[in-house]
Amino acid sequence: MINYDKYLNSSIRSVSPSGIRKFFDIANEMDDVISLSIGEPDFQTPWHIRDEGIRSLIKGKTWYSPNRGFADLLNEISKYYERRFGISYSPSKQTIVTVGGSEAIDLAFRVMVEPGDEVIIPQPSFVCYEPLAVMAGGKPVIINTKDEDNFRLKAADLEAAITPKTKLLVLPFPNNPTGAIMEKRDLEEIAGVVKKHDLIVLSDEIYSELTYGGRDHVSIASIDGMYERTIVINGFSKSYAMTGWRLGYALGPTEIISQMTKLHQYGIMSAPTTAQYAAIEALKNGSRDVRKMRDEYDMRRRLVVDSFNDMGLSCFEPLGAFYVFPCIKSTGLSSEEFCTRLIMEKHVAVVPGTAFGKCGDGFVRVSYSYSLKHLKIALERIREFTEELKNEGNG
Amino acid sequence: MNKLLQLLGTNSQFSTAEIAAMLGEPEDYIAAQIKEYEKEGIIKGYQAVVNWEQLDDNRHVEALIELKVTPKKERGFDEMAEMCMAFEEVESVYLMAGVYDFALIVKGETMQDIAMFVAKKLSTIDGVLSTGTHFILRCYKDRGMKLFSFEDSADERSLIL
Predict the structure, then answer these.
(1) Are residues A38 and A61 in the same domain?
(2) What domain range includes position A334?
(3) A302–B159 CB contact, under 8 Å
(4) Which of A255, A385, B45, B49 is the least buried, fewest Cβ under 10 Å from its Cβ?
(5) Could you tell me if A37 and B159 are in contact, meaning their C-beta atoms sit under 8 angstroms apart?
(6) How confident is the prediction along chain B (161 residues), in pLDDT tens digits per residue?
(7) A122 and A269 within one domain
(8) Which residues in chain A have Cβ-Cβ distances shorter than 8 Å to B22?
(9) Does B124 lie at the interface with A, CB-CB under 8 angstroms?
(10) CA of B20: which chain A residue's CA is closest?
């Protein structure tokens, strides 16, 4: 018998698998389960975008693309960031197309983090930052964002988490799972601390097209003095409903992007060719689709937030992404207990807040990336569940 | 308030409270708006979208009838439209641009019903020049709703993280 442990990298082995899975696996075993656990758009990629992908295949465009992506796509990305967020990046030097935003996050960590470097990660947040920081040899330092701050990152909390070893700050807004956003004045305060301590920011803006209530996304890179110390991560998955195409990108200082490009070149070579042709069309002619999807999400968002508050599970108004993050503390259950009982008793799957960091206890993540009809049924079942919990408490 | 009509046009199953939440408006305002639309006749009614074919004892046949007519001096096409609308067999009446003037959707229990209706009632109206009957074989999509789906429509998304 081979003892594989001695062959396996111990820091990789120490990383635990994602906690979202468990409830999904239970859900898969049951009939009649209504899931509100998925974190990707329920829309299909708009037809004209799919069509461009198909056309490229018909024309036989089946080769590798240049390492950093097709020039046309790099140009379109650059124009898009200028147009939408007022920041200008050189397509030939400051832009790289990656296999999803996730690859870009991984690359950024790996080109910057050295053993012992501290990476500040606000939580609750997307599950990949912490393990990727660890695998890059860094030490994650967690900041807990709070319900009473609408889960925004506060400058004082950031200041308190900084040590001489701090190198990077991950800025995951609009946020998965809380739906929180950072407005300009919030970012200005954060920028002050970042500049003072000479940090670099990894700004994950993958949900940047999904903000509501008239609050357009603001990139921290557009704040004075932050352009030169920010790596922006974005992609096509959430904004254009293109998750399966696996296409993201990073924008930032030439020196950092060129190192990321080297790593990408050796590890990945290039992002999928077909997806890049489709993405060019998305950026050129997809803004109407984005608006349409956003309006639809917005309607669902209002319905879901309103329902949770009405049930007595208080829910701050999320202004981004497609999640709500209601507080379930009033039930007296932990997040895990709440989710387990909800799926066993009512066959509704939601994700415990703890999957996104310890501080997520007392909350659950509810995705509204589902049809209104689906949401209505799910919400009715959750309402029954909370009523029954109340009666238990009284009885 | 186009959004309200859009929402009701796709799904009228939501309660006023739910619609109000979705549109971010007060509930009594939405209730008043709907009443107003109903009163003004902007909202004519609410109907279920039925897939008749799925019924075991389905007796529902529909045909699209093309009608060429002579417009009347005084009232143009309106008079003819009015006469067509009066038949309970006629489900819809459209005035068309192109080679014919009216398109009607006519329903009956059997094809014979529709054939007889066209032959005896429709084509004998004064001013009707010709009719063309196209029986509808199957309705795949009606008022934005798919009545058939050919692929498993189950949610294919999986949790990957």
Answers:
(1) no
(2) 4-45+288-386
(3) no
(4) B45
(5) yes
(6) 588 998 898 877 889 999 999 999 999 999 999 999 999 999 999 989 999 999 988 899 999 999 999 988 888 899 999 999 999 999 999 999 999 999 999 999 999 999 999 999 999 999 999 999 999 999 999 988 889 887 766 788 877 76
(7) yes
(8) 299-300, 302-303, 372
(9) no
(10) A303
Asked if A302 lies within 8 A of B11 by C-beta distance, the reply is no
Does B137 reach chain A within 8 Å, measured CB to CB?
no
| Domain identity same for A13 and A51 | no
The sign of the CA dihedral A63, A66, A67, A73 is: negative
Tens of pLDDT, residues A77-127: 999 999 999 999 999 999 999 999 999 999 999 999 999 999 999 999 999
Q: Which residues of A touch B9 (CB under 8 A)?
A: none
Regarding whether A318 and A235 lie in a shared domain, the answer is no
Give the separation between CA A288 and CA B117, rounded to whole angstroms: 46
Q: Are residues A162 and A88 in the same domain?
A: yes
* Positions of E strands within A59-165: 95-98, 118-123, 139-144
What is the tens place of the pLDDT at every residue in A365-389? 999 999 999 999 999 999 999 999 9
Specify if A203 maps to a domain: yes
Domain-embedded: residue A311? yes
- Angle, alpha carbons A361-A366-A368 (nearest 5°): 160
CB pairs under 8 A between A and B: 44
Residues A117 and A211 in one domain: yes
Task: Return the CATH number at A279.
Answer: 3.40.640.10
Q: What does the angle CA A271 – CA A277 – CA A281 come to, to the nearest 5 degrees?
A: 130
Most B CBs within 10 Å, among A22, A25, A38, to test the B interface: A38
Are β-strands A139-144 and A118-123 bridged in parallel, bridged antiparallel, or unpaired? parallel
- Provide ipTM, 2 decimals: 0.78
The amino acid sitting at B84 is: C
